[in-house]
Specification:
3 helices, mainly beta, 12 strands, 12-stranded antiparallel sheet
C-alpha cells in the first residue's frame, strides 16, 4: 500500500502545476448560488476511510488571502494535517466564487504528512473545481491541464506526462452517502488525472526508450456538494498497471489500487 501511495504522489507532482479557465458553456441547473459557503470561520470535519485505515480531517476558512491580485478565502486544516484527497487539495489554498464556478489557487502539497521522500509544492491559478451550471460530464476547464515533468526514481530517469481535467456531475434531489447520511439538493463534480510515464535505459552505448506506465487514469475523485453545506462526501480511486519487468527494476508492484472515502461529520457554516 505504501508503495502505491509513493508512486501515486510521485506522479502527482504535476497534478496542479498549471490550470485553464472554464469555457463558459453553462447549461446545467442554472443555480449560481449553489456553492461551498465561503465565510470566515466556517469549518467541516471529515472521517477518512482509506481501505480500513481511519483518520480525521478538520478543514476551516481562516480568512481572506490575495493571490495574483484576486481575493480568495483561505482554507486551512487543524495542525496543518490532512489525509483525505479533498482536504489535502484545499489546505493552505484559496477558493473564490465567480458566477456558478468555484476557482482554486495557491500552492498545493499533496500528502505532505505521509512521510514521502519527496516534497510536492504545486502551483494553482484559478483551476475550476466546481460549476453548478455544468451538465453531466461537461469539462469545466476550456482544455485539460497538460504537461511533462522529469523525476528520478531508484536511479531511473522518468518522464511523466499528465492531463488533468474536472467535469460536471449529477444533479440530485436527495443523496445518501455510503455511511447512511442523507442530504438534499446535491451536485457532484469529478476530477480526473490521466498519466503516462516513460524512461530510458542505456545498453551497449545505445539508448533504449522504456514505457513504464501506458496512458491511464491514475486518479479519479468524485465530490458531492450539498447546497448550503459544502462537500459532504468524496470517493477517490487510485489505480495503475505497469510493465512487470520495469516494476521489478523499480522495486514496486506491477499493479495497485486504492479507494478512499471522506465522510462529512461535524460542520458549522454561515
Amino acid at each position: 500500500m505504501k508503495k502505491l501511495i509513493l508512486l501515486t504522489f510521485l506522479i502527482s507532482t504535476s497534478l496542479f502545476t498549471s490550470c485553464s479557465n472554464d469555457d463558459g458553456n453553462e447549461n446545467g441547473n442554472g443555480d449560481d448560488n449553489f456553492t461551498i459557503p465561503l465565510n470566515n470561520n466556517n469549518y467541516w470535519t471529515y472521517d477518512v476511510d482509506s481501505e480500513g485505515a481511519s483518520t480525521r480531517d478538520s478543514l476551516y476558512i481562516s480568512g481572506d488571502v490575495v493571490l495574483n491580485s484576486k481575493t480568495y478565502k483561505k482554507f486551512q486544516t487543524r495542525d496543518d494535517m490532512a489525509t483525505g484527497f479533498y482536504s489535502s487539495s484545499l489546505r493552505n489554498n484559496g477558493v473564490r466564487k465567480q458566477d456558478s464556478r468555484l476557482l482554486l489557487s495557491g500552492n498545493l502539497s499533496l500528502a505532505a504528512d505521509q512521510n514521502l521522500p519527496i516534497n510536492f509544492n504545486l502551483n494553482l491559478d484559478d483551476f475550476v473545481i466546481f460549476n453548478s451550471n455544468a451538465s453531466l460530464d461537461q469539462a469545466l476547464n476550456s482544455g485539460p491541464v497538460t504537461g511533462t515533468i522529469q523525476e528520478t526514481y531508484n536511479g531511473y530517469p522518468l518522464t511523466i506526462s499528465y492531463s488533468l481535467q474536472s467535469y460536471g456531475g449529477e444533479n440530485l434531489t436527495t443523496f445518501t452517502s455510503p455511511n447512511g447520511d442523507s442530504y438534499s439538493n446535491v451536485i457532484s463534480t469529478k476530477i480526473k488525472l490521466n498519466v503516462s510515464v516513460t524512461s530510458v535505459q542505456t545498453v551497449g552505448g545505445f539508448t533504449i526508450p522504456i514505457t513504464v506506465l501506458a496512458p491511464q487514469d491514475l486518479i479519479i475523485s468524485k465530490l458531492y456538494l450539498a447546497k448550503g453545506i459544502g462537500v459532504v462526501y468524496v470517493n477517490t480511486d487510485t489505480a495503475y498497471t505497469i510493465n512487470s519487468t520495469v516494476a521489478s527494476q523499480l522495486g514496486i508492484p506491477a499493479t495497485g489500487s486504492q479507494n478512499q472515502k471522506e465522510y462529512l461529520d461535524i460542520y458549522v457554516v454561515d
